[in-house]
Structures are given as structure tokens and as C-alpha cells.
Design a protein that fits this description.
The protein has about 180 residues and is mainly α. About 70% of the residues lie in helices and about 0% in strands. The chain starts with a helix and ends in an 8-residue tail after the last helix.
């Protein structure tokens, strides 16, 4: 499922480079949904089986549910307890960025004003999309870290530490996890 998410991100990038900004948002949002569903299903086997059998759709609300979603304290605590206090901040960002992407997907009025009328380069649209994409990548990386870091031999895969610290190195718990210095408060 995560491979499918990555493929959608690639399609979003292709759309972005050809000036198809609305389609770039469609792909970006689908990447986000599939990434979060991958993590949600990793902790909810029944939900996964129902989805695989076509009995259930991926719905955004359960993915980020405050009590049971991927960014709930309960979910994060189950896999990386020390990160659970960070989850609400990333949940708030996830809700905001998902809503902003959805405005383009649903064709909200203001999106017609900010996107070019033709297939042409727009620095503003390009930059805004990249800002949203960065937020989404950071949220997905936080979720992947919360879900899997304690189960991976990070010393055998130094790239994991490099990527994680580059994006999430401001989190004391992660710095400590990787053996780095933690700020005294």
C-alpha cells in the first residue's frame, strides 16, 4: 500500500512539472491518505482485511481520529510511547494541510483564482504545492517513526537516522533515541 502511495506522489510531481496544479493536489492528497491508511492498517488488521476485500473505503476521519487514529496519543503510545506527547501537534498540522489540499480537489472558489487558467508555470502555485508537500512528508515521517523506529535496527540503516534527524531532529525524544544530545530544560 505504501508503494501505491509513493506512486501517487510521483504522479503528483509529474502533474506539478507540467503545470497541472489541481491534479498535483489530487495526487498529493491521495499520497497522504494512502500513507496514513498504511499506518492505520498496520495497527488495525480487521480494518485492513475489510479494505482489501472491498468492504470498506479509506476515510480520512478515522485515520486522524483524536482517540484512535494514527496521530492519536493512544496509537503512538502503543508503538513509541515517548513520542505520544508530540502526536497532537502533528495531528493539527495534518488536519490543516489535508483541508487545504481538499479545497483544490473539490474545486473551491478561491482555487480557481490562484491557479493559472492554462497549462503554464506559476511560481506561486508551484511554491505553495511544495510547502504543502513538505508538511505532508514531515507528518508521514513522524508517523512512520512513531510506528516503526523501535522495531528497526537503525544502526544497520544509517539513512533512516539521517532522514529522520534532518526533518524531526527538533524532537528531543528522537535525538535521544539516536544517541544525540538532548537540551536540558
Amino acid at each position: 500500500m505504501f508503494k501505491a502511495a509513493i506512486k501517487e506522489y510521483q504522479y503528483a510531481l509529474l502533474s506539478l512539472t507540467t503545470g497541472q496544479y489541481r491534479q498535483a493536489y489530487v495526487g498529493l492528497r491521495l499520497f497522504f491518505e494512502l500513507s496514513m491508511a498504511t499506518l492505520y492498517f498496520s495497527g488495525n488488521e480487521l480494518e485492513l482485511q475489510n479494505w482489501l476485500q472491498g468492504r470498506k473505503d479509506i476515510l480520512w476521519r478515522p485515520l486522524i481520529d483524536i482517540d484512535n487514529g494514527v496521530l492519536s496519543k493512544v496509537f503512538v503510545r502503543a508503538f513509541f510511547e515517548e513520542l505520544s506527547n508530540e502526536a497532537p501537534r502533528y495531528r493539527a498540522i495534518a488536519e490543516k494541510v489535508y483541508r487545504e489540499c481538499s479545497e483544490y480537489v473539490h474545486g473551491n472558489a478561491h482555487t480557481h483564482q490562484v491557479l493559472p487558467d492554462t497549462l503554464s508555470f506559476s511560481e506561486d502555485a508551484f511554491t505553495t504545492w511544495h510547502e504543502q508537500a513538505k508538511n505532508i512528508r514531515t507528518i508521514v515521517l513522524f508517523c512512520l517513526s512513531a510506528r516503526y523506529l523501535k522495531f528497526v535496527n537503525v544502526s544497520s540503516t544509517p539513512k533512516i537516522q539521517e532522514i529522520t534527524m534532518e526533518e524531526l531532529g527538533h524532537i528531543d525524544v528522537l535525538r535521544a533515541f539516536f544517541g544525540g544530545a538532548v537540551e536540558q530544560k
